[in-house]
Write a structure and sequence with these properties.
By secondary structure, the protein is of the alpha+beta class. Helix 4 packs parallel to helix 5 (about 130-140). The longest helix has 28 residues, at about 320-345. It is globular.
Length: about 600
């Protein structure tokens, strides 16, 4: 039985039509012709509490990114390439049209579908200033207009809406963080001074948690306290957190650098500072339009830009790097026990849920597991082709011989966050499966082995992972890698390996390396390790160079490798990696697992 994951199917397409009808009735009552429903909370977060799952409640779609636009006579749900299979299965496509956001954005759809003279509503707490500006331009181009709504009309019709979370907020030990709260605040103030700013409004709970060395539990699987903070260039900082959540330990730990106030004090405090003429940095990615409106109403202009904490948090401290390595060794031993069990048991009547529960149990046996870092993606056969598939009791599939099984999972330990994907054969794989797996592995290796100059971005690395697939006329519709936090979110910015990855990759950043291939209706393949950006010394180099250290420790599926496709350098890298996996993990596992591990890590060459 899973301690941290549920397999309830929350999506019911039959609920979509009556809920959309109720929303349309509420909008008509207010004289509004449409409404935009983003998949976000007041912090524009990817992971949100149940009380903020408005998009899922309305449409049935439970993915981590998306938006809906509901008009009087039509509606659309916008999802990216990860969810183009999942979304149509979760919503009523007779009421809501699923649209690939990579082909048509919500703003472009509004411009094409909003009637002339129509009023499109939005909740200013659920959109950034830039997002509202795009919608304003689209509505104007259609001959309509945008109007802010309060209260949110979904909150009015959502009768059994969960209460906002009140999980305890606790200190995060400095031995794991590597820097004190005072040291971090001093770095933020240096950044403010460099840009001639008077204060920073922190709207991203990840930034708040990192800066004040706090952790909470307001969001599933991510130890976040939801709240805000104001950091002036001079004087004490202020944390705006529900007082019911702040433990005595947290209050004592933070009391020397910041004061606590209730969340409803944020707007008047912000307005007071703005009236004094302060130049306030407002984060362009996470600050709600409503916060910028507060500053403007007080007679000032918000400085909408980058929260400097994002980059600070992304570059891990020495203590965080030590913790990440330790967490991956611990997690690697748990994953090895799981993989040995899987090899001996599958298919054996196993279902996807059986596998998820076993892997979680292996991690529980470490004695250090705080939570999983996200609900495990465990796709057997065709379910593996759904990129962010989440198994439920309704979709739970038995593993069958001749299929592939994709398992993407992670753990939260106090010293680090893990995320690993392995694709496993169940019985004898087909030649096509071996070909596709090996091409994905080649892309994964190309990133692992990459050497690049200082200043290079994830966008420049992304093509390395795709080239082996491109040569066969194939590709995948998601980024190659995302940033990863330190006992924080498994998805962290600003660093990423993707076409949109414009942030330079700097030593200390942790990212995932996870190319894939998905054949709809048949199988999915993804291989993922976490990697750490490091300095790379090259004799005679004329530029400062970078490379990656692989943190994740688990063997690849050798029965899926077509050795004929690999060159000598790729085979040598795999053999060296497997030797490291065996040497590191063998002393930490039981005899049965050790024997399996020795076979799984035997040289390919």
């Amino acid at each position: 039985m899973s301690r941290f994951q549920t397999f309830d199917d929350l999506a019911d397409p039959a609920r979509t039509a009556p809920r959309v009808a109720a929303l349309r009735a509420e909008l008509a009552r207010r004289g509004i012709d449409g409404f935009v429903v983003p998949r976000s909370d007041e912090h524009q977060s990817e992971y949100v509490p149940p009380s903020a799952e408005r998009l899922a409640w309305l449409t049935g779609f439970t993915g981590s990114a998306g938006a809906a636009v509901i008009l009087a006579d039509r509606a659309a749900l916008f999802v990216d390439g990860r969810y183009t299979l999942q979304a149509p299965a979760q919503t009523d496509t007779g009421v809501i049209t699923v649209v690939d956001s990579g082909e048509t954005s919500a703003a472009r759809w509004v411009e094409a579908n909003l009637a002339e003279g129509a009023v499109l509503g939005y909740d200013p707490w659920l959109h950034t200033a830039d997002a509202v500006a795009r919608l304003e331009r689209a509505a104007k181009a259609a001959g309509g207009r945008l109007e802010r709504l309060s209260p949110n009309p979904i909150d009015v019709i959502w009768e059994d809406r969960p209460a906002p979370p009140k999980a305890p907020v606790r200190p995060h030990p400095e031995e794991y963080a590597g820097l004190s709260r005072g040291e971090k605040i001093a770095r933020v103030r240096e950044a403010l001074a460099a840009e001639k700013l008077d204060a920073l409004l922190i709207s991203d709970p990840h930034a708040l948690a990192w800066l004040f060395n706090l952790r909470g539990g307001d969001v599933a699987h991510t130890p976040l306290p939801l709240g805000y903070a104001l950091v002036p260039r001079e004087g004490p900082a202020t944390l705006f957190l529900d007082p019911d959540k702040v433990t005595n330990e947290a209050g004592d730990a933070v009391g020397d650098v910041a004061a606590f106030r209730a969340p409803d004090a944020l707007a008047p405090t912000l307005a007071e500072i703005a009236r004094r003429g302060a130049r306030i940095r407002v984060d362009r990615d996470t600050a709600a339009r409503a916060l910028s409106d507060v500053v403007r109403a007080a007679g000032a202009e918000p400085d909408v830009g980058v929260d400097p904490i994002g980059r600070m948090k992304a570059i891990k401290t020495d203590a965080e790097i030590v913790g990440a390595r330790a967490a991956h060794v611990r997690d690697g031993a748990a994953v090895a026990r799981f993989l040995a069990w899987f090899a001996a048991t599958a298919p054996g009547g196993l279902t996807e849920i059986d596998v998820v529960e076993k892997l979680e149990a292996c991690r529980e046996e470490t004695g250090a597991l705080v939570d999983v870092s996200f609900p495990s993606i465990a796709g057997a056969g065709p379910n593996g082709a759904i990129v962010h598939y989440r198994v439920s009791r309704a979709t739970n599939r038995a593993l069958a011989a001749g299929e592939l099984f994709l398992i993407d999972s992670g753990a939260q330990y106090r010293d680090g966050t893990t995320d690993i994907t392995r694709t496993l054969p169940v019985g004898e794989p087909t030649p096509e499966m071996r070909d596709r797996y090996t091409r994905v592995l080649q892309g994964h290796l190309a990133v692992s082995r990459a050497v690049f100059p200082k200043g290079a971005t994830g966008a420049q690395i992304d093509g390395f992972a795709r080239a082996p697939l491109w040569r066969a006329g194939l590709d995948f519709d998601h980024g190659t890698g995302h940033g990863v936090g330190s006992f924080l979110s498994v998805h962290e910015g600003p660093q990423r390996i993707a076409k949109t990855g414009t942030t330079p990759l700097e030593p200390g950043m942790i990212l995932s390396n996870e190319p894939g291939y998905y054949r709809t209706g048949a199988y999915g393949i993804r291989i993922e390790n976490l990697i750490l950006v490091e300095r790379r010394e090259i004799p005679g180099a004329e530029r400062e160079m970078r490379g990656f250290e692989t943190l994740t420790l688990a063997p690849y599926a050798r029965d899926l490798v077509d050795r004929a496709l690999l060159d000598a350098g790729e085979i040598a890298w795999i053999d060296a990696y497997h030797a490291r996996v065996l040497e590191t993990l063998a002393p930490l596992v039981d005899e049965t697992t050790r024997g399996w591990l020795a076979r799984a890590c035997a040289p390919l060459g």
